[in-house]
Model the fold of this input.
Amino acid sequence: MRRTLFAFCFGVLCAYLVGASMPLTVVLPTPALAQSTEITELQKQITDRNGRLKEIEAEILQFQADLKKVGAEKNTLQKAIGQLELERKKISSDIAYTQNRIGTTDLEISKLNMEVGTMESSIATNKKAIGGVLRKVNESDEEALFLVLLRKENLSQFWGTVEELQDVKNALYVQVQELVSLKILLVQKRDDEQRKRSGLVVLKSQYSDQNSVLANNKVEKDQLLKQTRSKEATYQSLLQEKQQAKDTIIKEMRDFESKLQFILDPNTIPTPGTAVFAFPLKNIIITQLFGGTEFAKRNASVYGGRAYHPGVDFGVPRGTQIFAPLAGRVRAVGNTDAVPGCYSWGKWTLIDHPNGLATLYAHQDVISVVAGQEVKTGEIIGYSGNTGYSTGPHLHFTVYAKSGVSVRQFNEIKTVTSCGPATTPVAAADAYLDPMLYLPKP
Done:
C-alpha cells in the first residue's frame, strides 16, 4: 500500500513546485496575439482600399459594356476614334485598379510583418516562462518525497498541495500546446508574406504592361488622326488598302501551307473532346469558331479562297490579360507590324506544351513573355489588342499539332507582299486543330 501511494504521489509530483521560493499557483503569459493599434489601423486601410477596388471594378465593367456597343456599330472614323477614347478610359481604370492592388498588398505585407514580430515576441516570452517553471520543477524533483511530506502539517494539507500541483501541471501542458500552435501560425504568416511579395512582383509587372497598352493607344489615335486628317473618305480608303494587303498575305500563306507535307499521328496528341486546356481569358465571348464558319464562307477570299478559319476568336477589349491555358515553353514571339504593310497577326506568341500541342495568341497589344521562357498554367503571357489586320480588338487563338508547326520568315512564303523579314507560324492543313475540342465547355 505504501509503495503504491509513493508511486502515485511521485507521478503526480513530477511537476511539483516546492519551497517558499515559488508559489503553487503559476500564471503563465497568454500566447494570444494582441491586436496593436498599428495593426488595427492597417486593417482599416486595407478594408478601405478593398472598397475602392470594388468601385473601380464597376467602372471597368461599364466601360466594357460601352465598348461592346461601339464594337457593333458600323466601321467609321468617328467610331474608331470613339472606341480608342473609350479604350483609353478603360485602360486607365485598369491601371488605377492595379495601383490600388499594389497599395493594398503593401499594406497587407506591413500588417503581416507586424503580426510576425508580435508572434515572435510572444513565443520568446512563453518559452522563457515555461523554461523558468520547468527549472523549478527540476529543482523540486531532486528533493526526497519524505522531506516534502514532513513539511506538511497534516495529510489533508499534503493532498491539497497535490491538487494544486496537478493544476499547474495541466496548465503547463496547455501552455506548451498553445506554444506549438503559435509556431505553426507563425510559419503560415511567413508563407503568406512570401506569397504576397511574389504577388507584388507580378502586380508591378502588370502595372508596367498596362501603361504600355495606354501608350500604344495614344500612338494609334495620334497616327489615325494624322493619316486621315479627320476625313471619313481617307479612313475608308485606308481600310480598303489594309483589306487588300491582308487578302494577298493570307492567300500566299495558304498556298504555301497547302504544299507542306504533314501526316498527323493521333497517338501524339490528346484525344479530341478532352479538355486539356483552360480558357486563355477570364470572360469568354466567342466571336468566330474554327473551320467553315459563316463569316469564313462569306469572306472566303480572306482565307486564301477557302471558307476556313484556322482558330477561335474571342471578343475582348484592348488590354485584357491573356493567360497560359497550360504550362509550356515559349517557342517564339513576333510582331508583323514591325514591317510596314505586313497586315497579318500583329504581335503574336507561340507556346509549345508537353502534351504534343502548340498554341498561338495573335493580335496582342503587349507581349509579356520571351522566347525560351517556361510558363505556368494561368500565368499572364500578354494583353489583348488590335494589332496586325483586325476588324476590332480580339484574341485569335490557334491550336496546332506541335510537330506540324514551324516559324518562318515571310520572305520564304510571299511572292507579292513586302513583309520580308517578319516572322509567322506556318503549318500544313492537317496540323491545324479545332481549339474547342481541347477547351472546357463554354
In short: Residues 2-215 form one domain.
